Known about the structure:
- The protein is an alpha+beta fold.
- It has helices at about 15-20, 45-55, 60-65, 75-80, 85-95, 100-115, 150-160, 160-165, and strands at about 70, 120-125, 130-135, 145, 175-180, 190-195, 200, 205, 210-215, 225-230.
- Strands 2-6-9-4 form a four-stranded antiparallel beta sheet, with no helix packed on it. Strands 1-7-8 form a three-stranded antiparallel beta sheet. Strands 3-5-10 form a three-stranded antiparallel beta sheet, with no helix packed on it.
- The radius of gyration is 18 Å and the shape is globular.
- The chain starts with 16 loop residues before the first helix and ends with a strand.
- Residues about 1-45 have low confidence and may be disordered.
Amino acid sequence: MRTFCGLAAAFLLAVAPGVRAQLDxxxxxxxxxxxxxxAAASTAMPAQDIxxxxxxxxxxxxxxxxxxxxxxxxxxxxxxxxxGPGQQFLRELRSADPAAPAExxxxxxxxxxxxxxxxxxxxxxxxxxxxxxxxxxxVSPYSPYFTTSAQLxxxxxxxxxxxxxxxxxxxxxxxxxxxxxxxxKGTVNVFVSQVAPxxxxxxxxxxxxxxxxxxxxxxxxxxxxxxxGTIKN
Length: 233
C-alpha cells in the first residue's frame, strides 16, 4: 500500500448507492475521518516542479521503470522465510495460487517483504483494513498492501503527504482518493511491517516511508473491497 500534508481541509465521505447493499450481511464499515490535504509528491520540491516532472517523464512514471524501494535485502529476507512466520507467509501465498511454481511463490514473497524496512510481525486480525486508490480506480484483487484507518490518520499528522508516509509512486498520486475497506473472513493472519523509503526518476522524487503496512499474502481470506469514502483536498 503510500502520501500527504498539513491538517486543515475538508474531506468528503460518499458511499455509492450500490455499496450499502453489499454490506447488508457484513459488519457496517466505519467511515474513515481523514482531514488530509494533498501535498506535493516530494517534500523537497514545489508542486509546480512535480507537474513538470509529470509532463516530461510520462512513460517512466506510467511503467514504474524508475521506481525503487530501499527495503529489506535478500540477506534478511531469506532467513525470515526459513522461520516460523516466514513459512506461514509462504503457505498463504501457495494457498492463494496453488498452481504457481515454487520459484514464483518465493519471488512473490521476496517482492512483498522487500517493500518494508522491517521484518514483519505475524498478527491475528479480525478487524477491517483499508486501502486508498486514485479516485475512480478500483483495488486490484491481488494487491497485498493494506493498512488501518488509524494508520492513515497517524500519517496525516506526521508526514507532508500520505504518499510520503506510504512510499507511493507518482503514478498512484491524485488530488482525490477513494478509500476501500475489506473485512477478514474470520480471524486471519496478517504480516505487519514498516513501509520502506522509495525513490523515483533517479532520486528526483523521494519518499521517506515509515507508516505501517499490512501484508495479505492470501486475499481470498478477505472480502471484496467496498468503497467507504473519498478523501479530497
